[in-house]
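Input structure tokens:
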């Protein structure tokens, strides 16, 4: 069964809600608002590709964070499979944070 554009949009919203429950261990902001999620692609079959980065290649959760993201994405109803593509291009910078994250960290 192929999902409609509306169903894909609904799945995307649920994925974002899940991503907002994952926090960077060193910064009290979720990874979505922190700007670590570059893209979420959802196919008509419910296959999800998340393109993400870390605050640095030496991040202490470099091994566990992508696995946590994959688990959370797979838990969303309608997701048939999830793959995480970890990239460091472009390099994450503080400018990638949302206004909400900057406010939370006292940067505004």
């Amino acid at each position: 069964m192929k999902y409609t554009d509306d169903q894909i949009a609904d799945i995307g919203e649920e994925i974002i809600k899940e991503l907002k429950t994952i926090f960077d261990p060193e910064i009290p902001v979720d990874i979505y608002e922190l700007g670590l999620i570059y893209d979420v692609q959802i196919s008509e079959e419910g296959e999800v590709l998340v393109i993400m980065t870390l605050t640095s290649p030496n991040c202490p959760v470099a091994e566990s964070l992508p696995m946590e993201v994959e688990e959370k994405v797979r838990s969303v109803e309608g997701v048939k499979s999830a793959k995480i593509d970890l990239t460091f291009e472009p390099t994450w910078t503080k400018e990638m944070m949302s206004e909400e994250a900057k406010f939370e960290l006292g940067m505004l």
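The longest strand covers residues 37-42. Residues 5-105 form a domain with the GMP Synthetase; Chain A, domain 3 fold (CATH 3.30.300.130).
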